[in-house]
Amino acid sequence: PIAGSMVLAAVLLKLGGYGIIRMAPTNISTTLIYPMIAMAMWGVIMTGLTCLRKTDLKALIAYSSVGHMGLVASATLIQTPWSTSGAVILMIAHGLTSSMLFCLANMLYERTNTRMLIAMRGMHKAMPLMTSYWLIASLTNLALPPTINLIGEIQIMTTLFNWSPLTIMMTAMGTTITAIYSLQMFMTTQQGHLTKDSKETYPAQTRELLIMLLHALPILLLTLNLELIY
Asked: What is the pTM of this model?
């Protein structure tokens, strides 16, 4: 259910990051941190490559969430003030962005009765206002400057680079792949010609626009004033 997906992305995934922040200083030995960070970084790349070949919109967003949480896990394991701060910022930003993407995907599913990307093309012509929210969600998902997603990712990448310069290759590859599939998701769902089954798609309702506003507004406010997190 869409409500479960939104709660999972916005809250439950963040409980894991919070648990690592609280438990890592005492319960994880130094020798275990190295392979765990390596697996987390490898997971970022693997989930990104999986997203590139996904045709199911909801599965694509879910794998994207796992990839972002790989960055959070690697940052929290290093246990420096800079990495913890970046992890908290990225968790908040991702909670809003991923929940917004899940909700947008469900709106298309209710109108097309399918989650296949190819069957959702051309939605800009049917719901032009929702295209603006799709653009906001896609750009924040790929960490466009000056959103809080970018601030969190930059802090995490800087911390990982200071910890080991080799990580810059994995983080750079992960962020590049994220940008590719985020733009591909936006262009596939919004550009092109409407399918025969989508020509009678009804426009966005007021409650749907309100839900999107309640996601986009905090992202904008936190981008303008990051001190609200602290």
From this structure: 0.90
